Predict the structure.
Amino acid sequence: MSVCTETFQGAAADWDRFVASMPCAAGYYSHAWRAILERSFGHETHFLAARTNGVMTGVLPLVHMRSIFGNFLVSLPFVTYGGLLCRDQASSEALLEAAEDLRSRLGAHHVELRHTLAVNPDLPARRHKVAMVLPLAQSEEDMWTGFNAKVRNQVRKAQKAGLETVWGEGELLDEFYAVFVRNMRDLGTPVYARSFFVNILAGLPGVTRIVLIRRQGKPVAAGLLYWHGETLEIPWASSIRDYNALCPNNLMYWESIRHALRLGLRRFDLGRSSLGSGTFRFKEQWGARPEALQWHYLLSSGAKLPNLSNSNPKFSMAIKLWQRLPLAMTRALGPLIVRDIP
């Protein structure tokens, strides 16, 4: 058996055909994400493929990021999932070797692989986050009765307050982004450029949608949904904290679950969280269960594991300062900063 690796330059359909043959593949392995990330952030991508006797047996999409925050490769930045997607161990080992060669050639500090499984126990790893995933019932009624009384009461409270749910795509993007910018500022986190979401909606038609919660015509919560296989995700969800008492977030998540049920999906991925955090507890109350995330690293000699997350104490002052900035300033400056933070 002969395994060789290459930087994939073939047709997107060939890449996607292999991805579709792998039941465990997250939606972010779709070749469409290559153009989305390149157009949105300007980073160079290196999509690696393994072939065994000429047949594709593994892929590893990588994005090269180089800035004041460092020089590194990530699979995949800005999302939860990525890393190796292989049919066998030989393909996995060949792609790891190819990634290490690429790291060395680019002078990168590390390669970060966002796995859910321990693909190689010898690789150093960070296990600082979990994905919160809710198994879906067969029907909306079964789903509703399975929630605890607190969750049901919070959804009813939002409904009684007259909050309106609106579904759409690009026509709702400005309202979605207005909520997103405000929420990110309040969290002390730089915001993605609006063009990122434009590119997602344009690049993934038919599997993306915006859900918006309005109060008296004003958007107060919003999420961008993305589905693949049996799973619906809400990777970008925000609400304006001034309206927390009306529970708009709860209504948005319930309507998203209803959407997943209408699509016949089996899992609702509420995104990643730190164990015991506020967002973890919010997702846990819905019945979501933690699934391990294992981010593995290929490191340059003597290098330490990186930590560019907002949990790093050295960013605490920057977070507090960001929370005080005017919205217009965070909207202008945020995309210039966050493009380099994976």
